[in-house]
Structure prediction request, 629 residues.
Amino acid sequence: MSLLLSLNNIHSYYGHIHALKGISVDVHKGEIVTLIGSNGAGKSTTLRTISGMMHPKEGSIILNGKDISKMEPHDIVLAGLGHVPEGRGIFPKLTVKENLEMGAFTVNDQKVIEERMEYGFSLFPRLKERVGQYGGTLSGGEQQMLAIARGLMLNPDILMLDEPSMGLAPVLVELIFDIIETLNKKGTTILLVEQNALMALSIAHRGYVLQTGEIVVSDSAANLKQNTMVQKAYLGMD
Amino acid sequence: MNRFFLSINVRELVRPLGQLTLFSLGSAAALSIIVLIMALVLDQTIIGETLTEKLNVSLYTYTLINLPQVVLDGLTIGFVYAAIALGYTMVYGVLEFINFAHSEIFAVGAFVGVEILIALDQTGMLRNASLGMAYVFLIFAILAGMAAAGALAVTVERVAYRPLRGAPRLVPLISAIGVSFLLQDVIRLVEGLTTGDFNRIFPTFGNFDQRIIFGKLALGSTNLTLGVSIKSLIVIISAVLMLVGLNYLVNATRIGKAIRAVAQDRPTASLMGINVNRIISITFLVGGLLGGAAGVLYALKFTRIDPFVGFFPGLKAFAAAVLGGIGNLTGALLGGIVLGMLETFAGSYMGVFTMGAAGSEYKDIFAFSILIFVLIFRPQGLMGENVGQKA
Ligand SMILES: Nc1ncnc2c1ncn2[C@@H]1O[C@H](COP(=O)(O)OP(=O)(O)OP(=O)(O)O)[C@@H](O)[C@H]1O
Ligand SMILES: [Mg+2]
Prediction:
């Protein structure tokens, strides 16, 4: 499998806070890779560093063979990376349709935009019923659907999802995870950040465990599920 | 019809015109009713008697007959305030930051426009210009003022605000105040070195000072001519064009959608492939263009400008933006019109109503008292909400 995204020895800071202390992550084409870890471990920081919302002090990030570590988010998006941020980032005063159009801001072909929007609606029929509604008035689950559908509007090579299950009822979590698997089967590579480690490991091929800014274990998802440390700390088993 | 016309969103052209008409007529009607009632009441008192003695007309008739003129004057200045207020509100909507240097951006626009006209005047071109050419020169001066102010606004953001974007809110605010003083002094210095005179006069040319007369009204023993000066009409028409244009830009174009997205959620907007810095620059550019045009129009209307010319209009436009709901485009229009009307009504009638005790020089106190009063009961401003939302 060819390497799609690779982080090499990344250090990121918030002011003086050393949030990522030299992490390395590889994602191959076609994989679902999950990043698990407890609150404040640095999962979101990792995604933010990849998508250019913050820049690493050290290390390189290679996407499709190109170093993107110094690029700005709007350019990284064009290089094939989609990021559904923590908290979903729905524009509250734009309608569902406008939110989706925003996702395809860099696309000029109206036909392509409409096709992709229809694709989003086919994944989440609920969104179609709500096209004219303001993003801010959607339920949490609907917002997550919208965020994912919007993240697909540029047809990214790799889609990064930051805690898509947060705050959702179990049925919806199932639905979202099903869709992530479907997307992956259709060819989208996924980098999934989750606190719900069991769910994440059940659909992922491989996983990394992050602890206070460092990667402590990385293995296949199946092996991680059997790892006693992971079981204790993240799967709630004794 | 070709595709270009089909792709024009007519609704977004008609709606702001409707709003402007509504706000203008609404505030004119409300204030007219108030002054007419006051006049009726005061007619029974010594105030009415004094006026009848002096002009042989009742206070009510006096008030009524002056109304059309007062409303027109109020609209003229109101639209200028609205155009400046939009600059404050656009920037606030996108950055939640008050660009206190906007008043000087307005002033620079005024100076550039006026200096160009003065230079043309010295070559004799203005005096000999045909009417058509006079308008060409005026439009050229307005465009030059806009270009200068727009470029300046973008530069100020790039140099003095962008490096401070992560800093606590007060820091860029202080920077803005610093830029404001700096620009005042730069204008003073440049004017001092080149012309030796801080006061610049808008040259007389074209037919801008003429009045279109609608008719004469008998006012007791005198006559009152009812009309509108051509320059007021120019100010009103230009302002309406700009306001409609801005509304269209924000609500019906791709750039406008990006501006709204950046206003609502900057980090997420960048994940959509929007170059946030470029959108912020465009926001400053648009605010600067409007401010610069307002500057030249202000100079056209009031003739004399000096390096501090931005201070009061800037402050009032800021107040107008807050009155309408800062960050809200429609609010800026409403606030500008209401404040311009208020101040003109106060300036025109306070003198007569108080028998000269509190003349028009106190109009600002009056207008600002109303402002404070409104904000006590509606701190979010008349319209509330945000630039992120469709106006
Ligand atoms: N904007 C910020 N300024 C300062 N420190 C921050 C900021 N954002 C995150 N941090 C710190 O960086 C560390 C990593 O945060 P991050 O958001 O990446 O955690 P996370 O693994 O995503 O946690 P969670 O599961 O709670 O979302 C934390 O210690 C956090 O306090
Ligand atoms: Mg997080």
